[in-house]
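Severity: low
Component: inverse-folding endpoint
Summary: output formatting inconsistent between runs
Steps to reproduce: submit the following structure tokens with default settings.
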């Protein structure tokens, strides 16, 4: 009898344990729509709204999904639990004002997912009809895409890295962005990636046709979640492809790669900060963040936002090793700066030097510039020198410009402004641009990478130095030899 009771006790214990495990499993439910939206574009052939749009969702322990709060005129035509796709149909383009009053061009619906035991969890999905045409970059692959139009969806090819490298992309996602909600509704459908730029609000809270400037990085991932490639999204209110200058017969962008503008010597702090752009180690295609504010206070790095919306993506500092000092590792770790290897001429590469990363005769897979543009060779800067006006300027005046005017020696009426935002040092990766000053940092040195390598494992940069604090030495060098682990700004040149 005791044995039977003991056996029953064992079964009871197992049964309770199984019920506890079952309850724990049941309590873990996941339901997410990564893109957070479904955007319906224009049918270019028919000049009408496309009728349907689809996006994917991710779920665990979700048995069914229902939609509520669908905007007027919209219809949910399918929620496929097997393929994990949601398809909606937009309203038809109205023929008159009465029909227009019966629809909503945009709005938010709520999707509620239910577990097998009836527990629910909800997500919101934005629906919108886009009346501005898409900007289509799918035929011009690059490592950087310029985005400067609000209310606009941008398309690019996520199955190709750089220009021709084939990728087995399963999905795409945000890696980081310099400001929250900089790029929205990141999605991939039928081998085409997309993201959206929303407008900003003015001081009265009204939407205006401008974008929030900044930078973002979107990654391509395989089915196992491994990062395959990444693309720099350059969000600016400028048009870098038309705002150009001519140096030594070549067309150069008038703003730094990743910047919003050229401050042109303005002392307005927002103009100064907006002119900096990103930093790059020689041969790497992924951008490295700059300071967290305009005056480099405490030399703190900008902290970016991750895909979870949290402001927690920090630049990582990595020593160059046999593991990290490789192109493949650099590609897989785009939020890291790789410190110089003293045994390899302070290149970020652990062994040898790869001149073809940027320095080949044709644009490489690793060039960080947009399609049609590349890192310039040093000859572009041959005719420049420091402006005599800046050379004679009182240092109290000069320091407020955060940069210097350079002139064309063959025609001194042509003056060009370059920010003096310095570099990230090859030894420790830290921002290195300033004299010591009791009140605030004093920017005084400018460095801009070129694609020209040297024979001793370095590469050349356009360099200028206006030592306004001491007046002991002012200098300019169109091809200043620099260690490749330095991270410097770039001005792109038209191919």
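Observed output (run 2 of 3):
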């Amino acid at each position: 009898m005791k044995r039977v009771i003991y056996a029953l006790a064992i079964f009871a214990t197992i049964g309770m344990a199984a019920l506890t495990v079952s309850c724990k499993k049941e309590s873990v439910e996941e339901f997410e729509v990564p893109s957070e939206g479904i955007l319906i574009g224009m049918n270019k052939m028919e000049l009408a709204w496309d009728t349907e749009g689809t996006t994917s969702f991710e779920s665990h322990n979700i048995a069914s999904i229902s939609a509520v709060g669908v905007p007027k005129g919209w219809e949910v035509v399918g929620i496929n639990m097997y393929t994990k796709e949601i398809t909606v149909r937009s309203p038809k383009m109205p023929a008159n004002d009465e029909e227009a009053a019966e629809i909503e061009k945009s709005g938010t619906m709520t999707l509620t997912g239910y577990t097998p035991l009836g527990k629910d969890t909800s997500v919101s999905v934005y629906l919108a009809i886009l009346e501005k045409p898409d900007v289509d970059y799918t035929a011009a692959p690059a490592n950087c895409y310029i985005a400067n139009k609000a209310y606009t969806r941008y398309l690019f090819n996520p199955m190709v890295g750089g220009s021709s490298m084939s990728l087995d992309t399963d999905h795409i996602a945000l890696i980081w962005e310099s400001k929250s909600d900089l790029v929205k509704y990141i999605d991939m459908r039928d081998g085409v990636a997309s993201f959206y730029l929303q407008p900003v609000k003015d001081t009265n809270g009204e939407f205006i046709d401008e974008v929030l400037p900044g930078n973002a990085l979107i990654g391509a991932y395989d089915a196992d979640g491994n990062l395959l490639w990444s693309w720099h999204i350059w969000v600016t209110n400028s048009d870098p492809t038309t705002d150009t200058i001519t140096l030594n017969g070549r067309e150069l962008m008038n703003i730094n790669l990743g910047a919003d503008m050229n401050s042109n010597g303005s002392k307005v702090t927002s103009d100064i900060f907006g002119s900096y752009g990103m930093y790059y180690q020689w041969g790497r295609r992924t951008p490295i963040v700059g300071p967290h504010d305009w005056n480099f206070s405490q030399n703190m790095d900008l902290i970016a936002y991750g895909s979870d919306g949290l402001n927690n993506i920090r630049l990582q500092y990595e020593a160059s090793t046999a593991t990290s000092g490789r192109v493949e590792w650099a590609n897989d770790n785009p939020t890291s700066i790789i410190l110089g290897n003293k045994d390899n001429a302070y290149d970020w590469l652990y062994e040898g030097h790869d001149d073809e990363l940027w320095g080949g005769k044709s644009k490489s897979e690793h060039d960080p510039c947009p399609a049609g543009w590349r890192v310039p060779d040093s000859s572009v800067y041959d005719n420049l020198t420091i402006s005599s006006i800046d050379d004679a300027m009182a240092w109290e005046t000069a320091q407020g410009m955060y940069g210097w005017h350079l002139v064309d020696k063959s025609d001194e009426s042509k003056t060009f402004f370059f920010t003096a935002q310095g570099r990230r040092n090859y030894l420790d990766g830290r921002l290195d641009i300033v004299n010591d000053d009791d009140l605030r940092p004093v920017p005084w040195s400018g460095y801009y990478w070129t694609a020209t390598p040297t024979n001793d494992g370095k590469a050349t940069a356009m360099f200028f130095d206006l030592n306004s604090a001491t007046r002991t030495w002012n200098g300019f060098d169109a091809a200043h030899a620099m260690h490749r682990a330095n991270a410097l700004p770039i001005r792109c040149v038209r191919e």
